[in-house]
Structures are given as structure tokens and as C-alpha cells.
Design goal:
Blueprint (H helix, E strand, L loop, with lengths): L5 H6 L6 H7 L7 E3 L5 E3 L1 H6 L7 E7 L9 H14 L4 E5 L4 H5 L7 E2 L2 E4 L1 H5 L5 H21 L6 E6 L3 E3 L9 E3 L10 E3 L1 E3 L4 H8 L3 H9 L2 E5 L4 E3 L6 H7 L7 E5 L4 E4 L14 H10 L2 E5 L4 H16 L3 E8 L1 H8 L11 H20 L4 E6 L6 H13 L4 E4 L1 H4 L5 H12 L15 H11 L5 E4 L1 H15 L4 E4 L19 E10 L4 E6 L18 E2 L5 E2 L3
Parallel strand pairs: 3-16, 3-17, 4-15, 4-16, 8-11, 17-18, 18-19, 20-22, 21-23
Antiparallel strand pairs: 1-2, 2-14, 5-6, 6-14, 7-12, 9-10, 12-13, 14-15, 22-23, 24-25
Length: 558
């Protein structure tokens, strides 16, 4: 019998009315703003009313470095939330909203998979509740106000050569990375070099995901540095009087989105920064609200633990005061074999020796997460091609590293296939073993913070940067930004900056080619290798296979 696609499974789901899902969390109907019958935004008044409630346990789901073989981190996050509810624990999940770029580019969808999905799948993957459009509009309003200010006399004395704020759109389009704008004569303003980033890389996205409430949101928006004067003093968004209007555009987007899993368990899907070019976590407000509503909150951080988990711990948890109780590292036999050197077309053949070599990638991630003082369990996301010998090899390897590896069949079986992992996660979270601590101190100089992440997490032998980059970091320290954490933009495919270098490389060189100050969000971005803040589409984008059927159904999302 043919295996059903993700979208076919999602379409067959028996959804509860979203008001009923909210009622199960104790959210009054008047505090939910419904978007149709199956999704709603949670009111700010209700969120404020939760302040004195105790917090539940926070569980992070992360993964090994991704490969073309697939890992299934979001699928495992959803499955684990369902699994915890299945074993009698009150739990919900907090995940990010998918970007249109990957949906129409390489991935085709990002709402989980198989029988571990959040629904409505089509809406979540496409326009959802309009949050990304609001973020894009707020970002580009600021861009328009910069050029408009210069056009009408430039009272702030902005140096046209030092405008740092680019434009944004939620789509992969390499042609917009670097361009010249305002052509066509005097009426169109002053021509200058500019460009676009993808919306998920926008500082506005990071701000929305790190802000504690609406007032914090507006304060952070005002702190965005958009340009510099000739004396190199910064010009802020608040200097342009843009912060109020930007916050108004984000008023509804700031509210967490409530949906459900295939098994009708509650989920917040809110915010969506990438982890390779941003901090890769869902919103602080969604996570903190969920912690007040249930006993266990399962959240994910993008890509491998070297990116998503590190930024989750060093940026989100540090700034929001979150204390993770346990972490799950997702791995697959297939991906570990690729890390050992097996080609994608040969993954169907048993190869325990190469698999064991590839386990070095998993071992590095286990050690890295433990470095933050968080107990770890490994989820082996099952594929039908896995053999008993290969699964046993992974379990043996993880056992030698002092952790458990549990085979999970949630993709095919839903919560029934992940109950064992749910039980182990609950034991870890309840055991009080976590002694969370960030990797570096706030007072450490910015360059040393970058070097610390590179040496301790990536196992790099050296970090290089041009004098201009080092001087810029020192200048920011003198301006009072030295206590900020660092957000390293790096390829997700390797611990190094070379995407083809799989496994667990040692002694490689990390070159920082550019640094950007996200003063409103509250971190410094260090761009390494060939990473792009505006991706391009692949040679055969998923968009070529997405269409509307004669019945009016979306087809091709997967």
C-alpha cells in the first residue's frame, strides 16, 4: 500500500475547534482571536494574567548536523509533545513558523511529518496568520523612512555611504542580494548601493522573537541602528520616529498563534528566525506563556546543536531567563552514515562500520549540549531502511558516551511510537539534574566570545578576521555593546565553515568576514564562510511541484 504524503495525512485529520483546544489550556474564548476555526491568537491581557503562575519544565529538541538524508527535528518535537500527553503528562509544543523561502525552495514544508504534524499544515506553511508579512512590512517601512528622511533634507546628517539597514522579503531571490536603488532621477531620491535579506534574517524578526511584551518590542525597535553619520555616531530607528509605527504593524504578530497537533494537543507556532543566519528559536513570549499553561513545554532550535542549541542557550535562555530541564538530540541512521562517508544513493545498504565512524558527529553534539549543564537523551528517528544491527550500533555508541538512545517511530505511528522517549524525557526533566549555564560570560570581549564558540563548540583551531572586523568589535565595546552575546552565521551542514566537511572535524579555521550589530535584538552577528543572508533557489525548486488541484486543494507541499 502506498505511503500517504504529509499533506494527505494532515488533510485527513479530525481537528477540534480551536476554542476547544484553548479551553483545554484554560484560555477563555474572549482571549482568543480566531483565524478561521483551527487557529487563533492569544490575547495579551490573558498572557499578563499568568505572571504569578509557576513555570513548567522546558525541553529542547535539537539535532545532529543536517544532511540530504533528513533528520526530522520538527517531526520529533511534535511527536514528543504528543508522546508526553499520551503517557499522562500535560504538555504542549512551541515551534517556529515556516518561511516561504524554504517552502518554495528546497524543503517544501516545515510543520512536522507523517503522523507527527501541527495542523492546519497548508496554512502554517503558507501565509498562516500573516506574521511574516507584518514583519516584512515593518522592516521595509523603516527602510522607506530612511531614504525619505535623506530626500527631505537629511536633518540627522546620515552618511549615505554608511546606511546599514537593508530591505527584506520572505522569499529566496539571489538577484536582490546586492543592488543599486533610487535610480531614475531627482524625484526618486539619491541612488545608492543597497540589497535585500530574507525576512527570517531581519533584525525585526529577531526582535519580535526576543521581546517580552509589546512595550519591550517598541523599545527594541527603537534601538535598531540604521546608519552612521560622518563622525561614525549611530543613527537609531527612534531618531527617525519609526519605532511607533513599526510596533503598530507588529501589534497582532506579537501574539502567539495557537494551533493543534494531529492528536489534538495544543501547540504554539510563533516566530521563525533561521539558525544558520539568525538565532533560530521560536518567540520568547510563546515559550514563556506555554510554561505557565502546562507542565512540560517541548521546543526546537534550528539545524544542528552547533547552531540552534548554542544560540538557544547563549542568546534566548540567557536573555529571557529560561532554565532548560533536558535536551533531546535527534539523529537518524541514514544521516549518521552520510557523516561517515556513505553516498545518498547507497544509504539503503547496511554499513555498520561507516555508521560508527559517522557517530562522531553525534558524539560531538552530546558533549556540546552537556557543556551547558543540560542532561541529554538521543532520539533515533526511525526509517524503514534501518537494520537492527545499525540501530544497535548507535545505541552502543551513545551508551559509551553516558547517555541513552531510544528508537522512535512517531512518523509512522504518532505518539504510540515515541512513548518510550517521552517517559525518559519526563524522568530527566523531573530529576533536577540540569545545572544550566551559558558558554561564556557577558563581560567577555566580543572577539573572545566568537573564539570561545568556535573552539569549544565547533572545535576550530583558529578564528581569523580582518583588522576592520576586529576594530569594529572594539568600537562597539566602547559604545557599550560589549556585554551582548554573539550570533554566529555559519553553514548548518558542518561544524566547520565548509559545508562539505562532515563528521566531527578538528582544528579547522573559522574566518569572520563581516560583523553586524543588532542593537535592538541584543546581539552581535558574526558572518563566516560563504553564508548568505539572502538564499537562492535550487536548480529544481519545490515551487515547480506545488499547485492547486481542480478541487481547490494545495498539492505538492511535503
Amino acid at each position: 500500500m502506498a505511503v500517504k504524503s504529509d499533506i494527505e495525512i494532515a488533510r485527513m485529520a479530525q481537528k477540534k475547534p480551536i476554542m476547544e483546544v484553548g479551553a483545554g489550556l484554560g484560555i477563555p474564548a474572549e482571549q482568543l482571536a480566531p483565524y478561521g476555526h483551527d487557529k487563533a491568537k492569544v490575547g495579551a491581557d490573558f498572557i499578563r494574567s499568568l505572571a504569578d503562575r509557576p513555570d513548567g519544565k522546558l525541553i529542547l529538541v535539537t539535532a545532529i548536523n543536517p544532511t540530504p538524508a533528513g533528520e526530522g527535528k520538527t517531526t520529533t518535537t511534535v511527536g514528543l509533545g504528543d508522546g508526553l500527553n499520551r503517557i499522562g503528562r500535560k504538555a504542549m509544543i512551541c515551534v517556529r513558523e515556516p518561511s516561504l523561502g524554504p517552502c518554495f525552495g528546497m524543503k517544501g514544508g516545515a510543520a512536522g511529518g507523517g503522523y507527527a504534524q501541527v495542523i492546519p499544515m497548508e496554512d502554517i506553511n503558507l501565509h498562516f496568520t500573516g506574521d511574516f508579512h507584518a514583519i516584512t512590512a515593518a522592516h521595509n517601512l523603516l527602510a522607506a523612512m530612511i531614504d525619505n528622511h535623506v530626500y527631505w533634507g537629511n536633518a540627522l546628517e546620515i552618511d549615505m555611504r554608511r546606511i546599514t539597514w537593508r530591505r527584506a522579503m520572505d522569499m529566496n531571490d539571489r538577484a536582490l542580494r546586492q543592488m543599486v536603488g533610487a535610480l531614475g532621477g531627482v524625484a526618486n531620491g539619491f541612488p545608492r548601493e543597497c540589497g535585500f535579506d530574507i525576512t527570517v534574517a531581519s533584525e525585526v524578526m529577531a526582535i519580535l522573537c526576543l521581546a517580552e511584551d509589546f512595550f519591550d518590542l517598541e523599545r527594541r525597535l527603537g534601538g535598531i541602528i540604521v546608519a552612521y553619520r560622518r563622525d561614525k555616531s549611530p543613527v537609531f530607528a527612534r531618531d527617525l520616529k519609526a519605532d511607533g509605527a513599526m510596533a503598530v504593524l507588529l501589534k497582532d504578530a506579537m501574539q502567539p498563534n495557537l494551533v493543534q497537533t494531529l492528536e489534538n494537543n495544543p501547540a504554539f507556532v510563533h516566530g521563525g528566525p533561521f539558525a544558520n543566519i539568525a538565532h533560530g528559536c521560536n518567540s520568547v513570549i510563546a515559550t514563556k506563556t506555554a510554561l505557565k499553561l502546562v507542565d512540560y513545554v517541548v521546543t526546537e532550535a534550528g539545524f544542528g546543536a552547533d547552531l540552534g542549541a548554542e544560540k538557544f542557550f547563549d542568546i534566548k535562555c540567557r536573555k529571557a531567563g529560561l532554565m532548560p530541564a533536558a535536551a533531546v538530540i535527534v539523529a537518524t541512521v541514514r544521516a549518521l552514515k552520510m557523516n561517515g562517508g556513505v553516498k545518498k544513493e547507497d544509504l539503503g545498504r547496511e554499513d555498520v562500520a561507516t555508521l560508527t565512524r559517522g557517530c562522531a558527529n553525534l558524539g560531538r553534539h552530546i558533549a556540546n549540549v552537556r557543556r551547558f549543564g543540560v542532561p541529554v537523551v538521543v532520539a533515533i528517528n526511525h526509517f524503514t531502511t534501518d537494520t537492527d544491527a545499525e540501530v544497535a550500533a548507535v545505541k552502543d555508541y551513545v551508551s559509551r558516551h553516558g547517555a541513552d538512545a531510544i528508537l522512535c517511530r512517531h512518523w509512522a505511528e504518532g505518539s504510540a511510537g515515541i512513548s518510550e522517549l517521552a517517559q525518559r524525557v519526563a524522568e530527566l526533566a523531573d530529576g533536577g539534574q540540569a545545572e544550566f549555564k551559558p558558554l561564556y560570560a557577558d563581560a567577555m570581549p566580543l572577539m573572545e566570545k566568537i573564539e570561545t564558540v568556535a573552539s569549544k563548540i565547533y572545535h576550530a583551531g583558529e578564528v581569523t578576521a580582518d583588522k576592520a572586523v576586529r576594530d569594529q568589535l572594539i568600537a562597539w565595546e566602547k559604545q557599550g555593546y560589549g556585554s551582548l552575546p554573539v550570533c554566529i552565521a555559519k553553514t548548518q551542514y558542518s561544524f566547520s565553515t565548509d559545508p562539505s566537511l562532515r563528521g566531527a572535524p578538528e582544528g579547522h579555521v573559522v574566518h569572520v568576514r563581516e560583523v553586524r550589530l543588532s542593537a535592538g535584538a541584543g546581539f552581535v552577528v558574526a558572518i563566516t564562510g560563504e553564508i548568505m543572508t539572502m538564499p537562492g533557489l535550487p536548480s529544481a525548486p519545490a515551487a515547480e511541484r506545488i499547485f492547486l488541484s481542480d478541487e481547490g486543494n494545495v498539492e505538492g507541499l511535503f
